[in-house]
Queue: 2 jobs
Job 1
Amino acid sequence: MSFLTSDKPIQLYSADYYKACAIGGILACAPTHSLVLPLDLVKCRLQVKPGLYSSNVAGIASIVKNEGLLKVYTGLGATFIGYGLQGMGKYGFYEYFKKTYSDALGFSNSLVYLGASASAEFLADIMLCPFEAMKVKIQTTIPPNQVQNLTKNLYSGLVPLWFRQIPYTMVKFTSFEKIVELIYAKLLTKPKDQYSKLEQTGVSFLGGYIAGIFCAIVSHPADVMVSKINNASKPGESTGAAVSRIYKQIGFGGLWTGLGIRIVMIGTLTGFQWLIYDSFKVSVGLPTTGH
C-alpha cells in the first residue's frame, strides 16, 4: 500500500495509522493460527469425541498414518482467511477504540483496554464466524472429504464465539498492556524508549506469551461449546437450546476438555502474534504497543 512505502512518516492515530495496525493484525493472526493448526485439529476432535486420541502426539501421528501427512492441516483455507479477517478487525479496531475511549474519559487504564478490546472483538467475530464454522465442520468430520452442509448455519455459533473470543481478547489485550508495563517498571532498569526496537519486540513476545496463558483458561469452556455446536447442531435449534443440550451431555468437566494443549497452543500463538504485530509496526516507523 502506498502509505507504507511513502517517505513521509505515518502520523499516530491518523487513518493511515489504523490501516497499518489492521495490516499488522492480518500478518499477526493468519499465519500463526495456520501454523498451530495440527494442534487445533486434535483439540477440536477431542472436544467433539473425547478419548479419540490418547495424547496430542498420538492424535497427530494417527491423522498422518490414517489420513495422510497433509491432513494435519485440515481446514487451512478457512483458518487463514477467517483469522486474517479477525486479526484485521481485532487489532485495527482495538487501536481505534483505545484512542477514542481514552480521549472520551481523559485517561488510559485497564478499563479503557477492556472496553476497547471487547468492542473490537465484537466486530471482528462477525467476520470470523462463518470461516470458524467451516473450519470446525471440516476438522471434526472424519474423513474430512465427507463433510456435508459446509455452508449451512454459518452463524449458528456466533453467540458462543462471542462468549469465547470477547473474554479471550479482553484478557489478551489488557493483560498484555499491564504485563508489558510491569516488565518495564519492575524488571528492566531503563525507560522503554532507551531500549532497542529488537529488545522492545522481545518484551512484546514475553508479554504476549504470558497473556496467552490467561486467555486460554478464561475462554476454554466457550471454545469447547463452539466446537460442539458447529459439529452437532440440529436444524432449527436455537443457540440457547443447543448450549443447554450439550451441557447436559458433557457436564462442567467436559467444558475443560483439551485445556492443556490449548494453553500451549494459545500461549505460543499469542506470543508470536504480539511479536509479529509490533515488529510490523516498528518496520513502518511506529512505536511498539504498551507503555
Note: The domain at 11-283 is CATH 1.50.40.10 (Mitochondrial carrier fold).
Job 2
Amino acid sequence: MTHETADTADTTRTPDAVATAAAGPSGPLGGYRELMGVPGAGRLAAASLVSKLPINMFSISVLLLVSPRYSYGAAGLTISAMLIANALTSPLRGRLADRHPVRPVLLGCLVCYLGGLAGLVASASARLPFAAVAGSAAVLGASFPPVTIMLRTYWRAVPGERTRASAYSLESAAMDLTLITGPALAGWLSTGLSPVLPLVLSGSLMTVAVLLMVTLRRPAARGAGDGARDWLGPLRPVALRKVFTAHVLFCAALAAVEVVLPIYAQKHHATGYSGVYLAGLSVGSILGALCLGAASAELRRRVQLPVLLGAFALGCCLLALAMHSSPSLVLLVCPLTGAAIGSTFAALFTTAGRLTPAGYDSEANGWMTSITQVGFAVGASSSAALAAGHGSSFFLVVTAPAIALAVPFLRGATD
C-alpha cells in the first residue's frame, strides 16, 4: 500500500509549503486523516472491524446455544475447544500467510471455518453426541481465517511513522469496540430471535472480512533472506522473545482486572455494575488508543512501553483503593484504568513488528495472538481463585508482579 504521487508538475511551492505537504494533514487527527487517504485503508478498517466481531460473539453465542441442550459445563468445554485450537494454530496460519499467496490461504481457511461453524450449529441443534459439538468447535478454531493476523502486516506497510502509529491505534480501538458490541449483539440475537442466528451472522461477517482482504493488493513483502527455512522464525531474536514475554505478563494482569471486577460487584450486591465496569474499561481503552495514535511523534517517543505499563499499574492501584470505598467510585475509576490498555496493546504490537525478522510478519502476529490467549487464560484462572478466597482487591497480587516483571523485559528489548 503506497501513496500515489500527485501534483508533480507543481514546482512553484515554497520550501515551507513542501515541508508542510510532506508532513501530511496537521492537527490532532492529522494522522487518521492521512491514514484514510492511503489507498485501501478504508477496506482494511472495515475488515478489521467485521473480522473481530465473530470471535467476540462466540462465547455468549455458544453458551446460549449449547447449555440448554447439554449443560453449562459442556458449553464451557466447547468454548475452550475453539480457543485452544485457535491459540495452537495461530502461528502456523501466520506462517502460511507469509509463505503463500493470500487468496488460497484465506479462502481455504474460510471454507474449513464455515464447515466447522455449520457442524457446530447442526450437531447442537440435533443434540448429537457432545464429541461432535466439541470437534466442530475445534475445527472452527483451528481454521479461523487469519484476517486479524494479516491486518497488522498490511498496516505496517502504510507509509509514514505517524500514519502507522494511527493505524495500530485504530486496530486496538476496533478490538475494544467489538469486545463491547460483540457479546451484546450475540446476546440480543440469541434471546430475542434465535440462538442459531449469532453463529450464522458470524459466518457471514467472516466471509465479508475475507472477501475484503483478498480484493486488496498485498504489500511488498520484506525479503526473508537466509532465514527463510528457519523453523524458529520470529522466535529466534532474543529481543522479540522478550516482547512476547512482556506481552503475556501484561495480558495476565489485564485478565485479572477483568475477572475480579464482576466478582467484586457480586460480593458487594452490585451485580448490575458487572457489565458496566467492563464497558468502562473498554471505553477508556478505546480513548487511550485513539489519543496515542493522534499524539505527536515527540510525545510518542516519550511515552514508551514502560511508561504505559506504569500507568496501567497505577490504574490498578486506584481500582484497589476504590474497591475499599464504594461500587460507584469503582465505576468512575474504570475508564481511567482502561486508558492505558489500548495504548499499551498498540505499543506492544508496534514494537513486536519493528523487531520481527524479514519474512515473518504474519507469523509473529500469530504468536502474539496465541500469547494473548495464553496470558488471559493464566490471569483469569489465577485471579478468580485469589479473589474468591481473599477478597476482590487481592487481584493486585497478580497484577503487580506481572507488571513489575514485564518492564525489565521491555527495557531490554527496546534499548
Note: Residues 161-192 form the longest helix (32 residues).
